[in-house]
Design goal:
It holds the Pfam family DNA_methylase. By secondary structure, this protein is of the alpha/beta class. The protein has 3 domains: about 80 residues, no CATH class; about 200 residues, Rossmann fold (3-Layer(aba) Sandwich), CATH 3.40.50.150; about 80 residues, no CATH class. The chain has 15 helices and 12 strands. The strands form 3 sheets. Strands 1, 2, 3, 4, 5, 6 and 8 form a 7-stranded mixed beta sheet that branches. It has a 3-stranded mixed beta sheet with strand order 9-11-12, with no helix packed on it. A two-stranded parallel sheet has the order 7-10. About 0% of the residues have low confidence.
Length: about 425
């Protein structure tokens, strides 16, 4: 029996080989897919050892009575290169202009932007399993896991050009007086800083919520900038808040962007991109065809939202649901809270009002519905080729946590121009 017949590529990918049952390392499948994508360049050396072990575990799982050597596993891995197809919606560029890594990758918003500019992703990490599933389907890579673990960090290759990280807006505890590297320990930003310190990329591109500007009266941002400038020696211009609606998507989403360049490049100025002044409205991202009745609110829930808003208005608060007109701009898509209720829309195309889910009352006859996951995807700049393989609840969370691709790409374009010019 030949090696190709002993085990298939699909089994090692994990469709029948249950990784959780036999996998000694959470990074096995990630190393395996990263190796397949990079087998023609030097980056593959960072992933080969773990990729071979992954195949070995798969063979041992399928043939428990046979003794499987690492040499056999390596030969099997080489056979799989012939079967490996890159038929994913967003493959790596064949002639990349630069290399980048994608930390806290989510579902790949940064990656799409960077690939559009000719970048090749050589490492990606994300801890959420549902987000990893979406990432794999669209890019062919399984992200590595928890970046706080040294076991994960060891797979980050040398020699990449740009570090991208939409690091979570985790609460900072600024206890020290120095406001530098030591004061960020215990935060996820420290993990990013540690990787920058070790790998010394040419450029860094970080994204976070607008509130980082004023968090702890500005002390948090000051600490981050001190780390990047003083401890790590990067040129970091004053961060800016950019709004997604200024870059071609109808979403009012403000985020802080932090850009930096390694000091030896001699870059001493950086201009953030200017608004495109495109007048894009929700109508341009609205579903072209009627959507399922499951997205329409019940009259009972709608009345609850109306009463909730009235109570807050009587107290002078601005909380409550909001209906976005077709000619309007959506509020920021966010997971949790009133994320979906702040982005309701009118859609009178529904003909069958029979509920398909368990609801209280009847489906409202005013045509008020939630936006669909695809509409959220479009609000974030994801092209329609982007596959949504998860249930709606996970999809809303993933797009709500993602970045607005057009704003990321506009900023990244300016970064790439400088690093290529100063290479």
């Amino acid at each position: 029996m030949g090696l190709k017949e002993k085990i298939s590529l699909e089994e090692v990918f994990g469709k029948t080989f249950k990784i959780r049952t036999v996998e000694a390392s959470d990074n096995g499948k990630a190393a395996f897919t990263h190796y397949l994508h990079h087998h023609q360049n030097g980056v593959s050396s960072f992933y080969k050892k773990e990729a071979v072990q992954h195949v070995k575990r798969a063979l041992e799982y399928k043939y428990p009575k046979e003794e499987i050597s690492s040499l056999v596993a390596e030969e099997a891995l080489q056979y799989m290169l012939f079967d490996f197809k890159k038929d994913v919606p967003f493959p790596k560029p064949t002639k990349p202009k630069f290399k980048f890594i994608d930390l806290f990758a989510g579902i790949g918003g940064f990656r799409i932007a960077m690939q559009n500019l000719g970048g090749k992703c050589v490492f990606t990490s994300e801890w959420d399993e549902q987000a990893k599933r979406t990432y794999e389907v669209n890019f062919g890579d399984v992200p590595f896991g928890d970046i706080t673990k040294e076991e994960t960090k060891k797979f980050i290759p040398d020699g990449f050009d740009v570090l991208c990280a939409g690091f979570p807006c985790q609460a900072f505890s600024i206890a020290g007086k120095r406001g530098g590297f030591e004061d960020t320990r215990g935060t996820l930003f420290f993990e990013v800083a540690e990787i920058i310190k070790r790998k010394q990329p040419k450029a860094i591109f970080l994204e976070n919520v607008k509130g980082l500007f004023n968090h702890d009266k500005g002390k948090t941002l000051k600490t981050i900038l001190n780390v990047l400038r003083e401890d790590l020696g990067y040129f970091v211009p004053l961060p800016q808040v950019l709004n997604a609606k200024d870059f071609g998507v109808p979403q009012n989403r403000e985020r802080i962007f932090i850009v930096g360049f390694r000091s030896d490049l001699g870059i001493e100025s950086f201009d953030y991109p200017k608004p495109t002044n495109q007048n894009i409205t929700f109508e341009e991202v609205k579903e072209e065809n009627p959507v399922s009745v499951k997205y329409y609110l019940s009259d009972t829930y709608l009345n609850t939202l109306v009463n909730h808003k009235k109570r807050h208005e009587s107290k002078g608060n601005g909380f409550g649901y909001e209906i976005i007109p077709d000619h309007g701009t959506a509020n920021a898509v966010v997971c949790g809270g009133m994320g979906r209720e702040r982005n309701l829309v009118y859609d009178d195309r529904l003909e069958d009002f029979t509920p398909v889910t368990h609801i209280k009352g009847e489906v409202n006859r005013q045509g008020i519905r939630k936006m669909t996951p695809r509409e959220w995807a479009r609000l974030q700049g994801f092209p329609d080729e982007f596959i949504i393989p998860v249930a709606d609840a996970s999809a809303y969370k993933q797009f709500g946590n993602s970045v607005a691709i057009p704003a990321i790409q506009a900023t990244a374009s300016e970064i790439v121009k400088l690093i290529l010019k100063n290479a």
